[in-house]
């Protein structure tokens, strides 16, 4: 490494306030240039002594709650009413079009999820699944599988039909310990 590059590195490190072994190593490298290869080692400290923040943050100590059951159960009947209301308001007058229904599933799922989260039921993870299909002479089966705690986890489901489409909305509420 050239002397110019070493000097530039030393100035840069001094500006940053880093502690460097560049100065002492530089002297030794000049003395023993013929005997060893040039190398630079640098040590930097994020929190140097004497350079602390003016307002140190107080340490927040969190403790486990060891809460294994919910204080408040998930309101299945209220969520059923939300599902009925949202599906009817968004799909009552709609005709089945594949592209429109693709966007409607995203919109409806976000609206339902927001309204369920507005109920402020603590420690439940909310999963919303919407399926919209064309109403004609066919059958459709929808299934889902997951790891389930029957005492705390629950779901709500509603089916909607109009003249050209059907929709199935499922909300899963999984208790998060």
TrEMBL record:
Domain of life: Eukaryota
Disordered: region residues: 1-39
Matching Pfam families: Tctex-1
Gene Ontology molecular function: dynein intermediate chain binding
Basic and acidic residues bias (residue ranges): 1-10, 25-38
GO BP annotations listed: microtubule-based movement
One Gene Ontology cellular component annotation held by this UniProt entry: cytoplasm
InterPro entries: Tctex-1-like, Tctex-1-like_sf
UniProt record similarity statement: Belongs to the dynein light chain Tctex-type family.
Name of the molecule in the record: Tctex1 domain-containing protein 1
Annotated organism of origin: Coregonus suidteri
Lineage: Eukaryota, Metazoa, Chordata, Craniata, Vertebrata
């Amino acid at each position: 490494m050239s002397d110019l590059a070493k000097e530039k590195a030393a100035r840069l490190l001094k500006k940053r306030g880093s502690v460097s072994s560049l100065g002492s190593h530089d002297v030794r490298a000049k003395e023993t240039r013929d005997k060893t290869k040039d190398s630079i080692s640098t040590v930097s400290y994020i929190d140097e002594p004497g350079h602390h923040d003016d307002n140190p943050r107080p340490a927040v100590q969190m403790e486990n709650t060891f809460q294994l059951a919910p204080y408040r159960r998930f309101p299945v009947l209220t969520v059923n009413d939300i599902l009925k209301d949202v599906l009817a308001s968004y799909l009552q007058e709609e005709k089945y079009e594949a592209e429109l229904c693709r966007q409607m599933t995203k919109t409806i799922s976000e609206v339902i999820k927001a309204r369920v989260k507005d109920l402020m039921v603590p420690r439940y993870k909310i999963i919303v699944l919407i399926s919209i299909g064309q109403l004609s002479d066919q059958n459709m089966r929808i299934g889902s599988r997951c790891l389930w705690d029957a005492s705390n986890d629950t779901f709500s489901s509603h089916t909607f039909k109009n003249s050209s489409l059907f929709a199935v909305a499922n909300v899963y509420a999984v208790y998060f310990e």
